[in-house]
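Dear H.,

Thanks for agreeing to be a second pair of eyes. The structure we're designing against is below in token form, covering all 372 positions.
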């Protein structure tokens, strides 16, 4: 007796789906072999959330929907990606740039309509809104003590008084300082002294950073009120510390194996090291517990706040301080040029909003929930 056609088709489909899932779960997958086995159109039929470690080299991924997917450890050398969607995907930008049509695709990319909401992402998830947008980390809500205790070595009085800050809602913060590749993709130039696609953009003022933000938001089709922005000083220190209370997120001392600063000088009985005299790639050192890279050293990072030389009267809810000397804006994190004391979690500095130098860059923030 002949098996009913519908049941046979369903059985074949189930077997095929099981085969595809087994291949996809194998850890390291040759995508071309997967499509060959399935004989399917990858733009329509393969929608797995976890593609970690898959080999996409030389593959035709045009029009493929990777929205929300895990793409860590994937290879894209020689792949075609025009029209593919990577919104909220965990993808390493350096790997994706190896695609054949990376430059052309970035230039033609248009935001999806409507923009998918991102409020569902878990704490510490990494996402990116577009190939040219920085990778962001979802920072959890919580409380922390801002500033340094009076007994902290080389403490400056502008780091006090210590006060408790409540971060009542989650926000997103750049996994890295904005890179030169990201700046160039949006602004079309590169003001940096130490040239390198993966190095932080520097030589940018607070005004320049906000011009970049406006351009980025416009390309993504979001308003400046709902889109990217500079972090508040409180948000910056909260994320830098990542639940720690020591001068640096890893402890009480520092070496040049942990951060880029002037290693001729020491802090808290630490050892001397190298003085690189320039910036390094934004992922050169280990990230902090909240997956943020180089919150100590490499480049100073602009914050939204107006400068005040004390925390008396500072907001306690994580908002930027909009009173004080607003011709001067806050800088945090220290740089390749600075002493180890100057890259502590609590160390504060300021400069004119128009100031530019080769040790000054910025990191982006965004408010949650990110809904349409």
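And this is the sequence the design step returned. I haven't edited it by hand at all.
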């Amino acid at each position: 007796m002949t098996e009913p056609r519908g049941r046979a088709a369903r059985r074949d489909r189930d077997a095929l789906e099981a085969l595809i899932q087994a291949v996809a779960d194998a850890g390291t997958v040759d995508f071309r072999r997967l499509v060959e086995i399935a004989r399917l159109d990858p733009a329509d039929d393969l929608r797995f959330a976890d593609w970690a470690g898959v080999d996409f080299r030389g593959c035709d991924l045009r029009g493929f929907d990777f929205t929300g997917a895990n793409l860590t450890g994937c290879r894209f050398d020689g792949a075609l990606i025009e029209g593919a969607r990577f919104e909220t995907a965990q993808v390493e930008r350096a790997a994706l740039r190896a695609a054949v049509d990376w430059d052309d695709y970035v230039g033609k990319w248009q935001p999806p309509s409507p923009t998918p909401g991102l409020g569902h992402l878990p704490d510490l998830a990494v996402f990116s809104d577009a190939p040219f947008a920085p990778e962001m980390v979802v920072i959890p809500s919580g409380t922390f003590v801002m500033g340094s205790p009076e007994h902290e070595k080389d403490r400056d009085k502008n780091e006090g008084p210590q006060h408790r800050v409540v971060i009542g809602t989650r926000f997103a913060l750049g996994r890295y300082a904005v890179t030169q590749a990201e700046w160039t993709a949006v602004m079309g130039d590169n003001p940096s002294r130490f040239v390198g696609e993966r190095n932080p953009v520097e030589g940018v003022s607070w005004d320049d950073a906000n011009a970049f933000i406006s351009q980025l938001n416009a390309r993504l089709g979001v308003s400046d009120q709902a889109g990217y922005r500079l972090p508040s000083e409180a948000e910056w220190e909260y994320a830098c510390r990542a639940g720690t209370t020591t001068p640096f997120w890893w402890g009480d001392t520092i070496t040049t194996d942990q951060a880029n600063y002037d290693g001729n000088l020491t802090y808290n009985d630490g050892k001397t090291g190298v003085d690189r005299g320039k910036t390094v790639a934004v992922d050169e050192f280990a990230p902090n517990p909240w997956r943020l890279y180089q919150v100590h050293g490499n480049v100073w990072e602009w914050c939204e706040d107006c400068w005040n030389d004390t925390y008396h009267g500072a907001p306690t809810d994580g908002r930027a301080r909009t009173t004080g000397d607003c011709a001067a804006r806050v800088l945090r994190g220290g740089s390749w040029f600075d002493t180890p004391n100057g890259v502590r979690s609590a160390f504060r500095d300021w400069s004119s909003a128009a100031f530019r130098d080769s040790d000054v860059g910025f990191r982006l923030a965004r408010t949650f929930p990110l809904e349409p």
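Two observations from my side: The chain has a mean pLDDT of 86. The longest helix spans residues 5-24.

Warmly,
E.
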